[in-house]
Amino acid sequence: MTKRIRTVLLFGAAATALATVSACGAGSGDAKPSAPASPAASATAGSASAEPAPSATAGTLALHDDPKLKSVVTDARGMSLYVFDKDTPNTSNCAGDCAALWPPVPAAGTSAGQGLNPDLLGSLTRADGSKQLTLAGKPLYYYAKDTRPGDVRGQGVGGVWYASAPDGWKAGVTRPALGVLDDPKLGKVLQDKDGRTLYLFTKDQPWPMKTACGSDCLATWTPTGVVTNAEAKAAGLPEKALFTFTTPGGTRQESFNCWPGYTFKGDTAPGQTNGQNVKGVWFAIKQHITAIDRGRTVPAAKGPKTPAAQGSTAASAPAGSGYGY
Asked: What pTM did the predictor assign?
């Protein structure tokens, strides 16, 4: 009787063990996952060399209005994208363990949504041959610890990681008084303290500076404020390129090689250049000003852009007289 009881107990224990192993996934290697994991999720569980699959896509990029950081670039799912201070233009310095925590954003199948300048999107080739998305030459990344759309847990990590602004600048970080936008089509052009592109008006008169932008024009184009020599130098501009003058309205306006500067109200987010080539008389101002000849050399970035080519973004600007005067 004792022997029979022992046999029954052993059989029951074996059956229990078999059920436990099955429940823990024995033989599950043949099972197919219900859905592919997101790049961020894959990086959390992956090894040091884990990176997003080449077939993954960020989709149509969008802008998220963060209460503290303002406009932050996200992928189509609303996941925040980041820039790395240790990167150099079109070169990523994040690999291995870094890329596991900060998965590179795949370039394939990505497009610019409302508020983003599509010309700023590009790609670089990583060491493994995959293509990583860039914005104005800045490589873009996810943060593995962001789990929900709108998360910005990577902001300020290590003092080198920041959510991306619409022009690749560091969201939530004060901009210089005079900035530079690296536009693939226009080259390096000047920006104001809010990231708005600076333009010149070829109907203005250089030296002595005289503006042809009257009241109707000023409803669409805003005169540039005064720039200091130190601010010009920080932006890579010769101090002698600055010529400040007084407008007919009594305000002080900055000019660059004697060409008065303006911002365009049709630019609604940093990095936009909707004012470029408007009516063939408005052009972004180049950063590279070497000839200081009181306006004889026009520091205009020549390119094919017009408001019509920029879609609904430019259409939101004041009607005026076609933005040109």
From this structure: 0.79
